[in-house]
Amino acid sequence: PRGTGALGFYEKPGQRTVIKSIRIAADVPVAEQTRLEVLRTDSATFDAVTEARRNRKGDGWTVAPAGAIEVCNVQLPVRPIKG
Known about the structure:
little secondary structure, 1 helix
């Protein structure tokens, strides 16, 4: 979470979130892994999502569509698997 200081920094050490442990996802037992669906990058839907991001308009921020997109701005839709 964001801190209360300028630019969201934490003003006091007690506000910091402590990382208690880290594991590589592949090392987590299958029963404990988070089940996710990822949109295939070879699909027409992914092409449409990427094209919409490349040529954004009407979002209240973009003045003119860029006609281009940086690779880090290509978002891959992911959602939890239900059930």
